[in-house]
Amino acid sequence: MADKETPVSIPEQCPHCEKVVDMTVQAQWESFVPETGDLPLKWTSVQCPNCTGVCLYLQEYFGPEVCPPDGWDERYQMYPAQARRLSADIPSELRDDYREARECVKSKLYTAAAVMARRTLEGITIDQGYTKGALFNRLKLMRDDAVIDSRLYDWADICRDVGNQAAHASKQSVSREDATETLDFVEALLDYLYVFQSRYQNFKARRDAAKASAK
Length: 215
Prior knowledge:
- This protein is α+β, with helices and mostly antiparallel strands.
- The protein has 2 domains: 1-82, no CATH class; 86-215, Four Helix Bundle (Hemerythrin (Met), subunit A).
- The protein is built from 5 helices and 5 strands; from the N terminus they run E-E-E-E-E-H-H-H-H-H.
- It has helices at residues 92-106, 110-127, 135-144, 150-167, 176-214; strands spanning 9-13, 20-32, 40-47, 54-60, 76-79.
- A 5-stranded antiparallel sheet has the order 1-2-3-4-5, with no helix packed on it.
- Strand 3 and strand 4 form a beta hairpin.
- The mean pLDDT is 88.
């Protein structure tokens, strides 16, 4: 699973000086998840040629079926600390759209971030089987079918509204605060639908099995 050779540089936006540069790779190594001893981890230490600031990236190996083409998940910046990485339980297409939205915020492209947040919302509805009609109606159907509750619906709908504002010509711009909070709410929706629902089902199944074996 190790790369044939360590890359000399990685194109990234430096979190220290905010310049997009070819970060110089200082070292790269692999380790394993301490709790299980499996799922290899890849660490990459880099330095910015512009400001000499250093960063540490982490990648997890999930296999080509989950993370094509080479099996490694996207790089996650461990140092300096950044927003947490999305779970691999979330479909890769949705993670890609959400990550692009976050990159837009980093680049101060707040209108573009809101558009990508709306695209992520639309992708969620399609993945959940709601493919017809306007996004507004799809979200209402998800609420009516109890896929999401009223509070999550309210969060999703205001994110849709911000995305609509961003997608149409308007004198009203999208602020940094609106873009960031829109993405926070979209992230909460992703976690609820794809992470916590799955964890709850696994937890419930484990509890039910334990009760059955105790009889």
